[in-house]
Amino acid sequence: MKASNIGKILGGFGLLLLFSSPFTLFFSSGSFAIAAVKVVAGLVLLGLYFATNFQQFGQFASRRSSFFFGSTALTLLLTLGALVAINYIAHKKNVRWDLTEQKIFTLSPQTMSTLQGLREPVRAIGFIPTDHPAYEALQVTFDRYHAEAPDKFDYSFKDPRRYPDLASKYDLHEGQITVVLTRGEGASESHTSLNIISEQELTNALIKLTRTSEQKVYFVVGHGEWPLNQPMPMPGQRGRTTSLSEMKQQLTQEGYVTQELNLAGGTTVPRDAALVIVAGAKGRFSPSEVESLRQYLSAGGRLIYFAEAYGEPGPDLSALLTEYGVGIDPGVVADAQFNSGSPYVVLSLFYGQHEISLPLKQRELNIEFPTSRALNVLTQGLAEGVKVVPVVSTSPFGWVELTPDDKPEPGVGERTGQIPLVTASTRGTSGAPDKRSDEARLVVVGDSELLMDSNWGHEGNRNLVMNALGWSTNQEDKVTIRPPDRAASTLQLDADMLNRIRFVSTDVLPLSLLGVGLAIWLSRRNK
Asked: Where is the ABC-type uncharacterised transport system domain (predicted)?
């Protein structure tokens, strides 16, 4: 290539450096030194251009190349101007797109509904020094909450070392990183604090701070149910244990208070019961226990029954479930197509039209049933005023395996097709004597293993169970999608590193691409 042609390419790069130096100074880096270097380098490259093309200057005005030179310079100016305008508009509008698979930068529906439902302003105080590695991530989280509810959620940061009076007021320990949520002022102020700072913890703390009363949930015991407060052997896995600790923690975070209930001897359900749960009963219920539950429901009580794969409710409890339109078939549900590697581990996206499943259906979340019983939606033998609907069912490829073995397949006399796995029943009780509410609600879930820690991390399972609790206790704001368990891998960047990244992405990279394009165009033009 001729020296004159190389000079033209270098001159083009020189123009790029000169024209972009104001952008570097005022937008991309703010560094006078870098802008000055670009100006000097641009002038040097233009000097090389003049040195290699000085013989053509006398003919420049009369040749067609003057038009091309002018149009090239104008194109560069317009391109740089467009880049500046785009960056300015993006800075002012500040629109964000969350392209992560788990939507780790998007607030969950539960968080947004909680913020929108705040009746009075809440203020978050982050007791964390500005030089702490978690400071920027927490500030971003606060910004998202404030943007969703600017009039009801505000925040500030306080270094506990500089505000010992506040640290003492909220009983903070030295070196403790804490967020305190407050509402009200003076003597009427109430607050709650949290140390694990995540969206789920922050939203649950908001719910805890703003709730007006606790919901008492009784777990029935005495029939081999899964225990709330101790580890238990994992089904089919010797030597391994699991528990319901994660579910219990979630209940506490969402304002439920749990307590065990033994109905033996005709004990009645306490008056403060917002909900009664039977979690995986393996033994039969006595007639007196069933009668206590029957009276409770007939007065407008709320019950969730999680069936156990290898347990039997007995004829008396089966009769009560029949009154509310639900039958439990023998055997275990299997699905030939929609499963998680084993036909017995059923996956379902097949939702009915019910409040419990509507958010799950909208988000298209699978429910994973490890070993589920098959339910029947009955039309005969129902108590007066009972209505029952399927909430979740198998795919059309499901069947009931009456003799479970390691090679399951539909056999003669085994029920096949779309089989209900979760049902919801209602019954009007406004005229009942000594009523507890105007409507009895019963949810039957074919699988109790959903409650175990090993299955609780499945987002669909967790939301199905918690939505069932929210619907049963008539808390519409708790029928939603909760913040997922986000295993986000983050990289902490300091201010200098962020400035370098911004400079490279908004200055060096675009100019390099423009320069390469200009070089290719000039080299082809001069052939």
From this structure: 215-455
Between helix 3-23 and helix 32-52 the angle, nearest 10°, is: 160
SS (H, E, C) 170-220: CCCCCCCCEEEEEECCHHHCEEEEECCCCHHHHHHHHHHHHCCCCEEEEEE
Torsion of CA 396, 401, 407, 411, to 10 degrees: -80
Contact 148, 109 (CB under 8 A): no
Within 263-395, strands assigned E span 273-279, 302-306, 326-328, 332-335, 346-348, 350-351, 367-369, 375-377, 386-393
CA separation for the pair 510, 520 (Å, rounded): 16
* ∠ CA 109-112-113, rounded to 5°: 85
Cβ neighbourhood burial of 191 (10 Å; 0-12, 13-18, 19+): middle
Q: Is the dihedral of CA 432, 435, 437, 443 positive or negative?
A: negative
Residues 504 and 329: their CA atoms lie apart, in Å, by 65
Output helix, strand, coil percentages for the chain, rounded to the nearest 5. 40, 20, 40
Report the C-alpha gap between 479 and 356 in whole angstroms: 6
Distance CA 114, CA 110 (A): 6
| Residues found in the chain | 527
How distant, in Å, are the alpha carbons of 283, 293, 501 from that of 288? 15, 9, 71
CB-side exposure of 85: number of CA atoms within 13 Å? 6
Residue 45, C-beta contacts closer than 8 angstroms, at least 6 positions apart: 10, 11, 13, 14, 17
Tokens found for residue 282? 């393996």
* pLDDT by position in tens, the chain (length 527): 577 667 667 777 777 777 777 777 776 677 788 878 888 887 887 777 777 776 665 554 445 555 555 665 666 667 666 766 666 665 555 555 555 555 556 788 888 888 888 888 999 998 888 888 788 888 888 999 999 999 999 999 988 778 888 878 888 776 667 888 998 887 778 888 887 678 888 888 888 787 766 799 999 999 999 988 888 776 666 767 778 999 998 998 888 999 999 999 889 999 999 999 999 999 999 999 999 999 999 999 999 999 999 888 889 999 999 999 999 999 999 999 999 999 999 999 999 999 999 999 999 999 999 999 999 999 999 999 999 999 999 999 999 999 888 888 898 889 999 999 999 999 999 999 989 999 999 999 999 999 999 899 899 999 999 999 999 999 988 999 988 765 444 445 556 666 777 677 767 777 777 667 766 766 666 66
Which ranges of 24-64 would DSSP assign to H, the alpha helix? 32-52
Copy the structure tokens of residue 308.
């156990």
Contact of 481 with 108, CB cutoff 8 Å: yes
- What's the rounded Cα separation, in Å, for the pair 277 and 218? 6
The helix or strand, by DSSP H or E, that contains position 233, with its residue range, turns out to be strand 232-233
